[in-house]
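Quick one - first record:
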Amino acid sequence: MKSENIYYLKYPSTVSKSCSESFLARWMRTQLQMKKTGRLSSERISQMNTFPALEQDKWYFNFLRVRIFLNDKKRFPVPENSGDPKEESLSIWLKDQKKRYIKDELDKEKTYLLESLSGWTWCFYEDKWWKRYEELKNFYIKNGFYPSLSKANNRLVWWFKAQKRAKRGKGNYRLTLKREKALAALPKWEWERDFDGKWVEKLSELKKFVRLNKKLPSSIGSKKEKALAYWTQDQKKLYASGNLEKWKANFLLKIKTWDWDGTRNLLWNKTYYLLSRFLSRHKDYPSGKTSLGAWVITQRKINKKGKLDSSRKILLMQLPKWEWQLVSRNLVDKNKKGCILQ
C-alpha cells in the first residue's frame, strides 16, 4: 500500500449499499464489543491489532490521513471544493475536532498534534474573517470613519457590529485573543461606543411618535417629546452643515411629516392665513377651481385618510362655518330649484 494514498483508506460502513461491506462492518463492530467485554481471545486480539487503526488508534489514523493530504495538496480538506467523498469525510472529521476543542473535550496530546499542522487554526472560517478585517481597515483608511448602515456597505456594517457584540458575549461566536488584539489595534477603535446603534433607536422612537400623533415632536410638549424634538433639530442642523451621513438623511426623508428647513410648515401656515383673509372679505370659501379652493379640498382629503396633523386640524376647525364634508355648490343649487318649483 502506497503511503501517499493512505488518506483514501476507510473502514467498512453499516449503511453501505454494498452487502459485503455492510456485513464486514457488522462483523467488525461485534469483534470490538467482544473485546471490550473480555470475550475475545488474546490470539484474535493480536490479529486485529495488525490493522492500521482500531478503536483508540482510529483518531491517529485519521490525523495521519490529514497530514498526508496537507503535504500533497498544500491545503486542508474542503468538501465544497472537492467533490471527493474521501476528502469530505476528512473535512467533517476536522470540523468535529474543532467542536470538541471548543467544548473542552479534546485532550492535550491531540490538541498539540493538530496545532503542529501547518496553517492550523481552531476558528471556523478564519480566512473569511481576516478578509473582512482587511476590508474594514481599508474602508477606514479611505474614508476616515467606520461604515454605517449604508446600502453599499451593508455586509461590512453587520460584520463590524458583530465583533462588538461578540466582545460583549453576545451573538453566535466569541472573539479569540488574536482577533481582539487585531481589532483594538485599528485607528480610533472603541468597543463600547455605538453611535449608529443609538441613532437607529432614536429614529425608531421618532417614527413611533409620528405614527401616533401625526406630527413631528414639539419643544413645548412633554419631557419625552421635548427630547425627541431637540434630537430632530440636531439632525436638521447636521444636514444644513453637510455633516449628516447620506443613509441617515434617506431614513429621515421616509418619514411623511419630515421637513428639513420647516418650509412645509411655513407654506401651510401662509396658505391658512390667505384662506382666513379670503373668508373675512368674501364670507364664503373659495371655489375648488382656484388654487386656494383646491388646498381646502386637499386638507379635507388628508383628514379623511386620518393623516392630518392634530394641530392643523384644530386651526381649520376654528375657521367660520368649517365643515369636513362640504356638499358641492351644484347640488345645493339643484336642491334650491327643486324647492322653488314645489
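second record:
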Amino acid sequence: MRRIHCVHALLSATLLLTVSCSSKDPSDLSGAASDELMRGKRKAVVQTDARIRYVPMPEPAAPLDVLLTVEGETWAQPILRDIGGDMRRFIEKMSRGKVNLNVATGEFQSGGPVTPTNKILRFIPGAGSHVPIIGNSATARHELGHEFSFNHSHTRLWDTQTTIKQESNRDPFDPMNNSPLKPSFNAPHLHYVGWFGSTEEAYAEPGREYILSVLNDDRSDSESLKSIYYEVPGTQVRRLWFSYVTLRDRENGWQAPDGMPETAVVVHEASGARVQAGQTYMEGLVGLEPKTNVRSGLILHLSEATPDTVKVRITMDPRWRLELDNEPEEPNE
C-alpha cells in the first residue's frame, strides 16, 4: 500500500521555511469550497460516429489502495478530518474509482525541519502551495497531485509553430499551478496517469465528428467523451488535447469566446516522453469561429454548444506544414 504523510506544524520563530505563502484566511481551512465534488451523476452521452477510436486506458481488477495520513495537534483534528475527506472524494472522483484513498488522522507524531528529502507534507494554516507545505483543501489538491506524479501546469501561447508569444505559470483549468482550487485535473494529467474512463478520450482524426462533454464540472461521469487527443505526425513530443470546459468564473481573466454559453474548447499540450508527462501547458481557447491550431494544423468546427456538451468536427488545414525547432523528429520506420 502506498503511503502519503500529511503533517501539521505550527509556525514558530525556530521553524525556518523556504516557501511561497499566499494570503489565505486561516479560518477557511475546512475545505468547504470543495463541497461541489460529488453533486450527483451526469447522464452519459453516446457518440453518433461509430468510427471514433478511443485511447486505451488501464482497467485495473481492483482499485489501488493509497493511505493518506493526516497528522496534527488536538485542536486541528476537525480541520484535518475535513481536509482528508475532501481529498478522498476528490482523488476517487478524478481517478474514476481507480484509486481507493484511505484517510487516517491522528495526533502530531512526525517532527524535524523541512528538508528536500524527508517526504513530509506539513499542514500550515495560510500557507501557499509549495512542497512540502499545504494550507487547506485547495493546496492539498496540488500537493497530492505531485504524489501521483503530476508536474506543474502553465499557460503558453504561440505566435508561430516554434515561437512563443506569451507564457505564465497559471493554467486556469488545473490545480497544479498557482491557483490550486480547480474542480478537475487537466486532460494531459488524466491521460498520463490512466485515470480517464475507456470512452472519455478519443483520437483526433480529420473527418470525424465528436460530442464533447464538459470536463471540469461538478458532476460525476466516467463514460462521456471529455477530450480529443492528437499526436502531430513527424515529431515525437508534440501532443495536444482538446477538452470542453466551463468558464463560469472567468478563470484567471479568461472568458468564453463569443456565442459560447460560458464554455469553450481548451487546448493543452504536454512536454516529456509519451509515457510520462513533464510540464503541461494551456494553449488557448476555441470557440465557434474555426481557426487553424498553429501547432497541429487541425481546425475544430464547433456547433450545438450547450453548457454540458458541444459537437466538434475536425478538418486539417491543407496549407499547414510542420516546422521543427529543437524538437526531436519521428524516427524513420
